[in-house]
């Protein structure tokens, strides 16, 4: 192969690598499906859509530890997450990688505000760094990923806090129209994000939805959550872990175990049990 052809192939794989990393950063997970066209496969992100990619690109991503497989689905590794962050912030990519900067909605005394925050120092990120008495992380990777995914949809849905809102009930967002939270101005992507938030909160139930929104979306600290809800000290992290586990099962349902087939008495290989 000529050097020019190698350079073209290398640049194409580099572009595909960034595209896949950004897609998985948004989708969270994806399955690999066969495509009708030879030489490509499909990455199916469910509600987040589908993209085509060359198998050679996936091989490079696996070899470079950009992606890995969890429960039969592809997810980004830590290196992949960093790559996606750099791609989203071309003006200052390494600052975005190290600080995980993002725009979030916070609840203040003056109302709701949109601010830039270092998400690596969010309450969820701080809790993710804690370890139990056995030395293992208090939160699993799936639980942390679920909380981050809820926050991303919450942000994309442009959901703003309102005084006295009950977060155990669905967020408005079924259709466009006038009303609170600026529904009339929502894009299709924002509406879809709201619908995903609704489904996620409904899946975990009203008992757990509130703490997820408080910590993952409004970035409230655990002590503040305990104070506002009248909970015992150090109880919020236990409730939050339970809520994140339920949320993780909603986003990444476990594959049902395959049952062993029962051989009929007339089938080849059948042997009666002797008791």
TrEMBL record:
The lineage of its organism: Bacteria, Pseudomonadati, Pseudomonadota, Alphaproteobacteria, Hyphomicrobiales. Residues 116-252 form the DUF6456 domain. Pfam families: DUF6456. This is DUF6456 domain-containing protein. It comes from Chelativorans petroleitrophicus.
């Amino acid at each position: 192969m000529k050097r020019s052809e190698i350079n073209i192939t290398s640049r194409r794989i580099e572009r595909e690598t960034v595209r896949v990393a950004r897609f998985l950063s948004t989708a969270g997970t994806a399955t690999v499906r066969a495509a009708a066209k030879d030489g490509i496969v499909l990455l199916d992100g469910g509600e987040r859509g589908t993209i085509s990619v060359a198998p050679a690109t996936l091989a490079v991503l696996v070899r470079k530890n950009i992606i890995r497989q969890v429960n039969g689905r592809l997810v980004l590794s830590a290196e992949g997450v960093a790559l996606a962050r750099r791609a989203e912030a071309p003006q200052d990519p390494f600052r975005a990688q190290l600080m995980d900067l993002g725009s979030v909605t916070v609840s203040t005394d003056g109302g709701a505000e949109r601010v830039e925050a270092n998400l690596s120092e969010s309450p969820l990120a701080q809790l993710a760094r804690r370890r139990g008495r056995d030395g293992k992380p208090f939160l699993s990777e799936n639980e942390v990923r679920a909380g981050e995914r809820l926050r991303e949809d919450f942000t994309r849905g442009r959901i703003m806090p309102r005084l006295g809102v009950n977060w155990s009930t669905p967020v408005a967002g079924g259709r466009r129209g006038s009303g609170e939270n600026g529904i009339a101005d929502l894009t299709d992507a924002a509406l879809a994000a709201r619908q995903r938030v609704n489904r996620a909160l409904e899946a975990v139930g009203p008992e757990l939805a509130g703490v997820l929104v408080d910590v993952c979306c409004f970035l409230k600290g655990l002590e503040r959550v305990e104070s506002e809800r009248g909970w015992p000290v150090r109880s919020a992290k236990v409730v939050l872990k339970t809520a994140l586990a339920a949320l993780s099962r909603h986003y990444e349902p476990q594959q049902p175990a395959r049952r062993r087939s029962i051989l009929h008495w007339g089938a080849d290989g059948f042997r009666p049990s002797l008791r």
